[in-house]
Design a protein that fits this description.
By secondary structure, this protein is of the alpha+beta class. 35% of the residues lie in helices and 25% in strands.
Length: 730
């Protein structure tokens, strides 16, 4: 144990019982040694009180009044002698005792005996004086404290002969030190509590978070039996959270008017904490509000006003089951806590208001409902960013198209603010209008890019637009700087589908976009999403795509096996993996479409497609669609002829009119045979004329091919324009 300048402190206090056991089990204390290093002899027995009158008469009353005893230690004989008061102070009254220094040291606390030994030996060596504060354990196990002061006397030859001095009880001082240590520990705990409470409240984002943190705080040294946090709204109490109260009691006081005579109202009005130490004090100070206190079952309270920016916003109530007179430190602790809660609550209410504003704006910008389209099932999800205003430019849309088809849109406008959300709303409406007009996917994307460039906002947007032929599950996708879609196949596997990409919308107004075509089998699902789903600060795109495909590939109940729609379950599974509101820095839009296919699993035996004027690339796409349709319909032998004749009719309509053409192919089953009818409608009154071209002519053979290869063909008038058709039989 380290030696203090005056006396050893009570640090590392050994409990009395343990100290007694330690004293009993310890080896006999070593005798004190002289300056020459020789052991002091141990010859005498007992610690007799002095029978002689060695104390002056004028000093005895003073010593008796102050409880001071005296001792005399014969150094050469190692014999201790003390008066009755000294024996009582040492706990030796009425007991026999081995009158040696070693036996005396054995009485001391094991931590204090070495200190006393060193000081006495130094005084003997220097013929000086010494003093010490030490603890001693009485035979009954009580821990006491003693102080002594002694001086070494020399004989005629200058050698140490005796030590005489005084001893007095210092147990009261011991208790004061212990209390001071306890208070120091408690202050340290409270200081640490304030730091931890400030950290926890600073991390609380919403009002709900603040209420949860407050009601779970462990107040050191107080141990409250009830905590409640309430805001004031229009003179009423809005209970935000509570602990230690029955739910029925909490509900009873929620949304009730706060009477002016209530102590909580007084605390808010005066902006000063109100402390009530007993039920009697409450009844005397606030008789009109006694019913509330009586039904709460508590006996003392602390009402802490919540004041932020000079404006009261609510009140904290800390209550106890017993009467409690809080001291100054405890009141300071509660007042400091009230200030922390007030600031955190004001910040959380502002956050909730901003979040509600952002959520409302986002709800207005995004479609309220997704239209139902026969033959497909869709599901959508939107997850706001975990930080900031929680609003961004991500959007999704589902657009019913002419001919029973459906358009899928997923996009992301640069930025995460209200401006980006406003641009997103305008772009979504424009792109939806272009798609609904029947423009092909490449044209829809090109027009949307020019529209965004004309807005002159210095913003760009990434987007994927996919047109799904509901009749037979073919997808025509166009990508503008966006991510590739992911397809979940019928066997449960999932993988990205490469789609030819172009520049983001608004970057190059004259950009021409390429179309990528891929097919779906009945039950297969295509996923469109924004980059927040697969990319984060600690996750690259490859890792994100891998995790997404793994999630999508997990087992999914088939339609009808579960009461819940499997596509909704899949959307929730994907969203739950990404829903990390504390870390996610980007918002997420997710759009899923499952092609259910026609009844019986066969594709609808009709193909209807609009061909834009001078859109020659559309003719190539139409030929591919027709080939795929005839293969699905089970008549592959008609593919080559039907493709050639359809191309001739469509080309003829495009070249000789100034309007769009409508292509329709239908397959009929008659008497076990299949009959294909192809029609091309246009709005021109100019009828085709069959002619015989010369050997060097570059045109004029179209109708000759139709007439030679078709089983039947013809031209029919319709309201405005005409309809050309041909039929093939298998």
């Amino acid at each position: 144990m380290a030696t203090e300048p005056e006396a050893p402190g009570p640090a590392r206090r050994t409990p009395p019982a343990q100290a007694t056991q330690a004293t009993r089990n310890s080896t006999p204390a070593k005798p004190l040694r002289t300056a020459a290093g020789r052991a002091v002899p141990s010859t005498a027995r007992g610690l007799p009180t002095r029978t002689g009158d060695s104390t002056p008469e004028w000093l005895e009353p003073a010593m008796a009044a102050n409880g001071i005893g005296s001792f005399d230690w014969d150094i050469r004989r190692d014999t201790l002698v003390g008066d009755r008061r000294a024996c009582t102070i040492l706990g030796l009254a009425g007991q026999s005792f081995d009158r040696t220094s070693g036996s005396f040291l054995a009485l001391l606390h094991p931590e204090d005996a070495p200190v006393v030994r060193r000081r006495v030996e130094r005084a003997v060596a220097e013929l000086g004086q010494c003093g010490a504060y030490y603890r001693t354990v009485f035979p009954n196990g009580e821990l006491h404290a003693v102080r002594f002061r002694g001086r070494v006397l020399a004989d005629a030859f200058g050698r140490p002969s005796r030590m005489v001095g005084f001893v007095w009880d210092a147990t009261v001082e011991l208790h004061k030190r212990e209390r001071a240590d306890e208070l120091a520990v408690l202050r340290e705990e409270r200081s640490r509590f304030i730091k931890e409470a400030a950290r926890a409240l600073s991390e609380a984002v919403t009002v709900r978070d603040v209420a949860r943190v407050f009601t779970e705080l462990p107040l050191p040294g107080l141990g409250p039996d009830g905590l409640a946090l309430a805001s004031l709204e229009g003179g009423r109490i809005a209970l935000l959270g509570s602990s230690g109260y029955r739910s029925t009691l909490s509900d009873q006081f929620d949304r009730i008017p706060l009477a002016p005579t209530h102590p909580a109202a007084e605390a808010v009005r005066q902006r000063t904490p109100i402390f009530v130490s007993s039920r009697e004090e409450y009844r005397e100070r606030y008789p009109d509000a006694w019913d509330w206190a009586e039904s709460s079952g508590r006996s003392s309270w602390a009402f802490l006003p919540l004041v932020a920016s000079g404006r009261p916003t609510g009140v904290c109530v800390v209550s106890f089951d017993d009467d409690r007179e809080l001291d100054a430190d405890e009141r300071t602790l509660l007042s400091t806590l009230g200030g922390l809660v007030a600031q955190s609550l004001a910040r959380a209410r502002l956050h909730d208001a901003e979040h509600e504003l952002a959520a409302g704006l986002q709800r207005v910008m995004l479609p309220r409902t997704v239209p139902a389209v026969p033959g497909v099932t869709t599901a959508v999800r939107y997850l706001a960013a975990g930080s900031g205003l929680q609003i961004g430019g991500d959007w999704y849309d589902v657009v019913p198209l002419p001919g029973g088809h459906v358009g899928l849109v997923i996009g992301d406008v640069q930025g995460h603010d209200v401006h980006a959300a406003g641009i997103m709303g305008q772009l979504r409406i424009a792109l939806r209008a272009y798609a609904a007009e029947g423009h092909p996917p490449a044209a829809v994307m090109a027009r949307a890019s020019r529209f965004l460039a004309d807005l002159d906002t210095d913003h760009f947007a990434t987007c994927t637009y996919a047109e799904v032929n509901v009749d037979y599950g073919v997808v025509y996708a166009v990508r503008a700087g966006h991510l590739d879609p992911v397809v979940r196949r019928a066997d449960g596997t999932a993988h990205p589908v490469p789609v030819a990409g172009g520049l983001p919308l608004g970057v190059a107004p004259d950009e021409e976009y390429r179309v990528t075509r891929f097919s779906l089998d009945p039950g297969e699902t295509v996923l469109l999403f924004t980059d927040g789903l697969v990319e984060a600060r600690d996750m690259d795109l490859d890792t994100g795509f891998g995790r997404l495909c793994e999630t999508v590939s997990e087992h999914l109940a088939a339609v009808g096996e579960s009461p819940r729609e499997p596509l909704e379950e899949l959307a929730d599974r994907i969203a739950s993996q990404a829903a990390d509101t504390s870390e996610r820095e980007d918002d997420i839009a997710l759009l899923l479409l499952r092609w259910d296919g026609p009844a019986g699993g066969r594709a609808a035996q009709q193909l209807r497609r609009r061909i834009g004027q001078a859109d020659l690339a559309r003719i190539s796409e139409l030929r591919a669609e027709l080939r795929d349709a005839l293969r699905r319909w089970g008549v592959p032998e008609l593919i080559d002829t039907a493709e050639l004749l359809s191309s001739e009719l469509v080309t003829n309509a495009i070249r000789h009119t100034d309007r769009d053409a409508m292509f329709t192919a239908r397959l009929y089953q008659e008497s076990g045979r299949a009959r294909l009818r192809v029609e091309v409608e246009d709005e021109s009154d100019l009828w085709p004329t069959r002619r015989t071209p010369g050997e060097q002519a570059s045109s004029g053979r179209g109708l000759m091919l139709v007439e030679g290869l078709a089983d039947a063909w013809g031209v029919e008038p319709r309201g405005s324009g005409k309809r050309m058709w041909f039929e093939l039989s298998s």
